[in-house]
Amino acid sequence: MECNYFIKPGYKAREANYTLSNEATPDYWEPNRIRMAALYQYQVYRRARQLIEQNHLKSVIDLGCGPGVKLHDLIAPVCSNIVGIDQESAINFCKANWSFGIFYVENLECPTLSLGRTFDLVICSDVLEHLLNPDPLMNYIRELRHAGTYVVFSAPDRDRVRGPHCMESPKLEHVREWNAVEFHRYVEHFGFVVIEHRLVLPQRFTWSVADFRMILSQLKRGRDFRTCQLLVCRGG
Q1: Burial class (CB in 10 A: 0-12, 13-18, 19+), 92
Q2: Is 155 exposed, middle or buried (0-12, 13-18, 19+ CB in 10 A)?
Q3: Residue 216 belongs to a domain with what CATH number?
Q4: Are 229 and 183 in contact (CB under 8 A)?
Q5: Residue 4 lies in a domain
Q6: Cα 8 versus chain centre, distance
Q7: Are the C-beta atoms of 153 and 75 separated by less than 8 Å?
Q8: In sequence order, what are the beta bridge partners of 154?
Q9: CA-based Rg of the chain, rounded to a whole angstrom?
Q10: Helices then strands, each counted (H, E), the chain
Q11: Domain hosting residue 215, numbered range
């Protein structure tokens, strides 16, 4: 493994995982945050749904499922065998609000939960950039797959969001951010075969004033407003 997770020399990662402490507060999943959770990474979960339908996949595990809104809206209607994993506050919300799936509390920095099974589809959407050391989670994902498993990763594209000269994420919750070349190499390092790698919108477009402002801001800076990397993989 390269010393900085295949990110260019000189890039500065954070020295603490602030996501763990921020989301531990009991009121973290308030109504507006839940509403936004339904919008962020929407295109990633829509692609996951397409994979289920196109390949007749029967089981899904979502690592970093959050409050499970996208699982409810997009995945549960086409798959009845669903497992969600996240930290306690998110899982408490899922257990209190959803009648589908099985939900487990786990620290994705160092996952040790043994499920004793594999899955047809693994989703890991915008999780790796939050971790001090994402390697244990990548190795954990390898244990969850069988020969026919699809794995869907997503992460922000640093160059698209911050520009090519960014050397540190200004977002407190992000330990590090990869550009497309770096992330592709990082995923392949663990033996996953990338069969699709493209950019999608970071959130569902709702025709709101905020959405138009976001797109205009990106265009003014000469950047593509599709800033989320979506990878579909096999193997591992």
Answers
A1: middle
A2: buried
A3: 3.40.50.150
A4: yes
A5: no
A6: 22
A7: no
A8: 125, 230
A9: 17
A10: 9, 7
A11: 18-235
Q: What is the pLDDT of residues 151-174, one digit of tens each?
A: 999 999 999 999 999 999 999 999
Strand partners, 192: 235
Q: Is residue 95 part of a domain?
A: yes
pTM: 0.93
Q: What is the dihedral of CA 131, 47, 150, 191, to 10 degrees?
A: -50
Alpha carbon distance 169, 107 (integer Å): 22
Answer whether residue 78 is part of any domain: yes
Over the stretch 100-120, which tens digit does the pLDDT of each residue have? 999 999 999 999 999 999 999
Residue 188 · residue 178 · CB < 8 Å: no
Helix (H) or strand (E) holding 18: helix 18-22
Q: Is 74 helix (H, G, I), strand (E, B) or coil?
A: helix
| Domains held by the chain: number | 1
Of 210, 94, 192, 82, residue with least CA distance to 137: 192
Give me the residue label for tokens 């809104």.
Answer: 69
Question: Does residue 189 belong to any structural domain of this protein?
Answer: yes
Let me know: does 60 contact 85? Beta carbons within 8 Å: no
